[in-house]
Each structure stands twice: as structure tokens, then as C-alpha cells.
Amino acid sequence: MKESLILQSSARYVLWTSLAVSLFILLRGHNEPGGGFIGGLVGALGFVFHALALGQGATRRLLRLDPLAWAGLGLLAAALAGLPALLHHGEPFLTQQWLAGTPIGTALLFDLGVYLVVVGFALAFVLPFLEE
Amino acid sequence: MARLADWLLALPILLPLLACAGGAALRGRPGAQRMLTAAASAAMLLSAALLLGVVDRGGPIASQMGDWAPPFGITLVADRLAAALVLITAVMYAACALAARGDAALGEAEPLWHPLLAALVTGVAGAFLAGDLFNLYVWFEVMLIASFGLLVLKAGAAGRDAAVKYAVLNLVATSVFLIAIGLTYGLAGTLNLADLARRLPEAPNQGAVGAVAFLLLAAFAAKAAVFPLFFWLPASYHTAPAPVGAIFAALLTKVGVYALIRLFTLVFPGELPWVGPLIGLAAALTMVVGVLGAAAHWEIRRILSFHIISQIGYMLVGIAIATPLALAGAVLYMLHHIVVKANLFLVAGAIRRAGGSFSLAALGGLWRRDPWLGLLFAVPALSLAGLPPLSGFWAKLLVIRSGLEAEWYWLAAVALATGILTLYSMLKIWLEAFWKAPPEGQAAPPPLLGAERAWLLAPVAALALITLAIGLWTEPFAAFALAAGEELLGREAYIAAVLGGTP
User: In this predicted complex, what is the ipTM?
Assistant: First the structure.
């Protein structure tokens, strides 16, 4: 598959398109169907396509960190999203907190964490299969 | 400031979760991973001790995650039993992390060991604190994923074979659990344990309630390795490195036992006449089959694995009889057994390092070469067999006495006989590994010295001290177990803590 010129030249555009779509789905999940999980899957698809076309080494370089490290950072973000409630507001763990008057709150951080966990784990599973 | 209860219930799950996330993010930096594990386990020990103190003084506490009112949201609850188990989980986390530092067999797999161990501890602590059935199911899945990962960490072909058996058989059990959850929700319209305790007696179809109870019994019995659903355990535990085996032996089956205790004291308390005799029969068969299986084997890890099964039987005796004394026996037995069994697996790791093998035929002469190791093996081994004045004696005493008081004479007799056969197995390891002359023509591995010795034996010695403390200074532990037993049968304090109102 690596010899296909069309695939190789389109891989980068497919990656950025799917990342843009995945971010849209992530943010849309706030009030409508979507969210971090499905967004993460769409994002991971873009990376898998990239790895199919250009080899998993190129994808790993693009990611900079190991996929599992991305998953770890995501889990960290999701877990930390529960803390403001305990620290500042005297409410139980994971209670939603809003940034004064905006729709931006801890739910977004949580969802972003889920997104990273899904992308990280999906790639940690798939990339080893594409090793030369 | 948030209520203390909100902090105390979130921290035992949050700390290992952060350690798991951080450990994954710090891949490739073993020094930082080790610091993180050390910090997380120390902090978890502190917060769990505080939780136990608060619960022991003031009764059960609950926290509603995300501030969703019960029974709709996720509730975390701790009573005496749950808090004590969380504390002992934190102890196991620290002990296994220390022992792994000295275990060369685990060495290069370390980048994944730290996050996976933390994930397993997260799942176990979550299961002990979960206040509703579905949440409990989720924590079971977290445990299953993490333990599968740990099993394949350093696995060769045999290890992968064991891991697949382990995962498939456990998935069957969790599927049964999930089906039972669906049926429960259809019957009662709620999955919150405290709410179920109120609603299920009023459900129109009591026959279906019995069926659900049976399905849940089967699912948790498989998790706890109860006869006849134990076969996944001896098929998988004997391939794991010693620290992995230790954390598995300590915690995984006990979560199943905990779920059984919670379910049959809180949700189905004494309304189903078949439950007691059925669990009693399963308890007797589990004890006998486990101990006979152990007697037939000559590899240390296999012997210890079969003993896990046989010891689960003792805990079931408490659930079957279900008097306050019997439940106190089950509680004390769980606490004692977690410490002792983890310790035996850790000693097995040290024996392998000092003697070169897990197989009794290839071992010998260890007593002459390393008498301290022999002493450290003797404490948990004799405690497992139930010799006074060690912790196992008091735990067995409570269980057998409750059996006699409730006139379950045959069950008490089986428990006594199992104790004697356990002693036989432990003596077998002692005679073969420590006492007999080393097999000829084998070069002994270099003696266990220096830092490696400290890492391997420090957690063993610490756990042996806990065993001795329970054995020699039994009064507070027994009083605590009795209070926990009363609290389990009392139910009302737990329900009031979750749903509000006065007990």
C-alpha cells in the first residue's frame, strides 16, 4: 500500500480533516450527540490512515509522545477535572463547575481527557500491527 | 471546604488513578515512575487510615459524585468493612510496589508495571466503595483489564495461554453479572444498593427476585473462585511473577467475597431460604477441593493458588451462617487472609531468587543457607494453617465457633479438617524447600544480599509483623470485626447514610 502516490499525498490532508471533524464532534457533544469518546475514535482514524500511508514511524514522529503517554495525559486531565469542586466549592468530587458565566467548565476538560485517552489507546493498539 | 466525607471517599480512588495516569505519561522514566508510585501509595495509606478512623467512630459515610441526588447518580459509600478493606488494599499496593523493586524477573517490564498496578488498585478500591450495582460492574471491568495486562507483562507462551483462559472465563462471569443487572433494573427500577434494599421486598414478582439473586451469586462466586466456578484461578495464577501473583492473590478474589457479603446482607437479607444452605454447601466443597488440589501439587505458586480457593471457603461459611459472629469471622478472615496470602507469594518470589526455582523438586537446603528467609516463610505459612498465636488461628476460631453456635456442626468439622490439610501443604513446602538436602549437581544461585535482599524481604517482614500483631494483640481487631458484623446485619445505618433520613 505504501507505493500508492495518491494515498501518500492525500494522507496529510485526511489526517487534518479528520482531526478537525473530531474536534467539532468533541465540542458538539456538550449539548448534542457527540463527545470525547466518539470524537477520539474519529481522530484516531485519521492517524491510522496516516500510518497506513506513510508508515507507523512517521505517525509516531508526528505524535511526539508515545500513544500510551497521551492516554496517560488524558486520564490525568479527566481525573483533575473532578478536583475544583472539592477544592473550592465544597461540593462532591466531579461536580460540574463553570467559568463565570460561560459555557466553558470542567466538563470540557473531562471530555478532552476522554478524547486523549481514546486516541492514545486506539493508537497504542493499532500502531504495533503496522510495524514493518 | 468540601465535607470531609467527600474527600475521604474520593481520595482512595483518585490517588491510584492519578498514579496510573501519571505513570503512563511518564513512560520511559523509571525513576519518576517509582517516585510517583511511592508517593501515591503513601498518600493512599494515609487517606485510607483516616477514612477507617472516621467510619469506625461515626458510622457509614456516603458521597454523591457530581452532586447527583441518590439513587440516580453514582454513590460512593464506606462502612467499617469497606473502609478496612480499602486500607488493607493500600497496604498491599505499597508492599507489592516495594517487592517489585527487588524482583529481577519483572525488571524490564517495569514501564507498564507501575500504571497497571495503580489501575488494578483503583479498580479494587472503587469496587469496595461502590454504592450501586452498575458502578460495581464498571470497577470489576477496570480490575479485569488491569489484571489481564499484568498477566501478560512478562508472559511467554504458557503465560499468554493462562492470560487468555483468565480473561475469557472472567468475561463469562461479568456477562452473567451484566445480565443480572439488567434484570434487577427491570424489577426494581433502581440499581443503587441502598435503594434496592428498600424496593426489592416490594417487587411484585418475587420469583424473579430469587432468579436475580441466583445469577448474582453465580457471577460473584466465579469472581471469588468458589467451587464449582474456580477453574480460572489455578489455570492462570501460577505463571505470574511473584509481585503480580501477590497482588492478585491478595485482592482479586476478595472483591468477589466482598460483593457477596454486601449483596446477601444488604440487598437480600435472609429472605431467600435457599441462600444459606447453598452457600454453606459451596463453602464446604470449596474448602475441600482447594486443599486437596494444593496437596497434589509440587510447585510453590500452584500450591498457594489452590490454597486461595480453599481459604475462600472459610469466608463463605460466614456468609452462609450470617449471624453477627459469623460475619465478624468472615471479616477477620478476609483481613487476615489478604495479608498472609500476599506475603506467601512474596516469600515465594524470594525463595525463587535464593533457591533458583519455584519447583519443590529443584529446591533444597535453604534453611542452612538463609535461616531468616525460613523464619519469614514460617510466619505466614503457619498463620495460613491456623496455628496459635498467629492471625489465622483467631480468624478460624471465630468462623468455627460461629458454626458451632449456629448448629452447623458438619460445616465446622469440614473447616477443622481443612486446617489440618493446610498444615500438611505448608509442611511440604518447608520440608522440600528448606529442610531436605539440595538436589545434587545443581549450582546454587548467588546468595540474596544487599539492596536486593532489602527490597525483597522488607515488605515480607512488614506483612509478617501485621500477622503477628493481629495474632498477639487480637482484642481490637476482633472487636472491630464484631462491630463490622453487627453493622452489616444492621443495614439501616448504611441505607440512611446513602438515602438520608435517620437510622
Answer: 0.89
